[in-house]
Amino acid sequence: QVQLVESGGGLVQAGGSLRLSCVASGRAFRTYRMGWFRQAPEKERGFVATISPSGGSTYYADSVQGRFTISRDNAKNTMYLQMNSLKPEDTAVYYCAAFRFTTGSMYSGDSYDYWGQGTQVTVSS
To answer: DSSP string of 24-76?
Structure first.
């Protein structure tokens, strides 16, 4: 069983930046597609960004394109989400997730097998 541990959330003013980290247990991290999702209390869980196992391909939700950057360091079993130009609409609990297999949509949380505990990001106006 893979464990994912997130950190880096907090309170920031609009226009500011945060970097989230997700550290994975195990020896197979480099074989997993990884993703970031978020959920506000009144909304469904939504896709934020995803990255291929090698880190060579990335995809972003339209709402964060140009502001957020997903990356990974396979030698450290760690994935990152650099969030710049934050907006109040970005306020949510952010989750990292791991996708073991090739079936399913990489944009859907239902496709991911392992999840972190979530970290709260609050952006004030």
So the answer is: E-SS-GGGSEEEEEEE-TTS--EEEEEE-TTS--EEE-TTTTTTEEEEEEGGG
- Residue 86 binned pLDDT confidence (cut-offs 50, 70, 90): very high
Closest by Cα among 85, 89, 81 to 118: 81
pLDDT in tens, 30-80: 999 999 999 998 899 999 999 999 999 999 999 999 999 999 999 999 999
At 110, which amino acid appears?
D
Nearest Cα to Cα of residue 68 among 55, 81, 79, 50: 81
